[in-house]
Amino acid sequence: MTDGSDMYQPELERAPARGIWGSRVGFILAATGSAIGLGNIWKFPYITGVYGGGAFVLVYLISVVIVGLPLMIAELMIGRHSKKNPVGAFKTLHHPRSPWQLTGWLGVLSGFVILSFYSVVAGWAMAYIFKSAAGFSGTAEQIQGEYGALVADPALSILWHTIFMVLCIGIVAGGVQRGIERWSKILMPTLFAILLGLMAYGLFWTDGGARAMNFLFKPDFSKLSAEAALSALGHAFFTLSLGMGAMLTYGSYMRRDESITRDAITVSVLDTVIALIAGIAIYALVFNFDTDPAAGPGLIFQTLPVLFAETGPWISVPFFILLTFAALTSGISLLEVVVSYFIDERRWGRIKSTLILGTAIYLFGLLSAVAALTVPFRGKQQGFFDIFDFISTNYMLPIGGFLTCLFAAWVMKKASMISEFGSGGIMFKGLVFVLRFVTPVAVLLVLLHGLELLPFMEY
Ligand code: PFF
Predict the structure, then answer these.
(1) In angstroms, rounded to a whole number, what is the distance separating the alpha carbons of residues 235 and 317?
(2) What distances in angstroms separate CA 265 from CA 73, 268, 286, one per listed residue?
(3) Which residue's CA lies nearest to atom 12 of ligand 1?
(4) 334 CA to middle of ligand 1, Å?
(5) Are 181 and 19 in contact (CB under 8 A)?
(6) What does the pLDDT look like over 97-145, one tens digit per residue?
(7) Which CATH code is given to the segment(s) 5-450?
(8) Which of 57, 99, 347, 349 is most buried, by CB atoms within 10 Å?
(9) Top mutation candidate among 32, 44, 48, 118 for ligand 1, by most atoms within 8 Å of CB
(10) What predicted TM-score, i.e. pTM, was given to this entire model?
(11) What residue ranges do the domains of the chain occupy?
(12) Which band of pLDDT confidence, cut at 50, 70 and 90, is reported for residue 191?
């Protein structure tokens, strides 16, 4: 039997565009960088508010454990075993005309759609670096109003969207590993420290701490609508970068001597902890200033600046720089999924693929950058930003994750899985059982519930 390292070396020489992580921590940092992003600091707190708090958080935590973690292990296995982009991976592990490659296609499409609106929010984070440097002043309402003004100004939103996409394109075109690995080591711990500081401030120096803990951790199931449960599951996918092949792609650059399970647990735990800390920090302030927890996407750009007006730019400028960095390490992983398809399958060069696809995503993102453009969707006029966010998070990622899970559990060869997992013992059997019966059933139930198609429920 050949061992894996014999297999990939010649392949690497033939395809020099395919990278490999420089070190063991390199993968962890890049994967954590992909997972931790706007999803944790911007989206988790605001959707928790929209969906009413504790019960939503509980469904989200359960989703991370029974759906997110097994699926992350499955994606990493598929990626590392095939050493391919999401489309190529399913072809390699099944056969060249396999219908499973549609799962990969869906992933590439999700990367395209998600990055197009993700870049708009990342742009707001960048704009807030400069707003913070100038200092926030005035009444709480005036400070909060600045966000509305930014979003409503298409020229400004487009400007920042452009800058963020240029950064993503520049990094992905240049090859990600070295720069990102090195910077992640400094910036991710700093982000963690700043968030911890903000959480401590919120808990111990404001009057909102206790209410924030109640809001987040005391479930009130009467508030758990079908849409909330669907969104909690969708968010587990979004925040862990699952269901669209990002972890699969990063896994394809992974060394064979690393434990996939241990790395998947590390990434999931770090991601969840950061989201909870951000949630506590932000809700302590929301309740302290008596603002509306269900404020929506503007929450972080409206409540934190009110506090920052008191602390000054020393905290706010680093905060928004780090938020931008967190968004950047996620943005490049989204772009990398799309680009890796064209490198592997179409034999395009890295620079050509990045430039062409990056520009296409940028142009598509203009729809989301212009808030005034609205169309009827689910019974009301909505902007493209909300529509793309809703469809990709709640349908594309769960469907992609569902199919990936079925593939790993029922189609991928057991021997291939065992070679990636490290052993075929009880842990492996447990994983296969969960991937076969628990994860897909959970995803399917929630998807059908969201579509109001469950036969035993009343809608
Ligand atoms: N996980 C990222 C976040 O929480 O911000 C967003 C994301 C990145 C989603 C990469 C999907 C993905 F493939």
Answers:
(1) 28
(2) 9, 5, 31
(3) 241
(4) 7
(5) no
(6) 999 999 999 999 999 999 999 999 999 999 999 999 999 988 888 998 9
(7) 1.20.1740.10
(8) 57
(9) 118
(10) 0.89
(11) 5-450
(12) confident
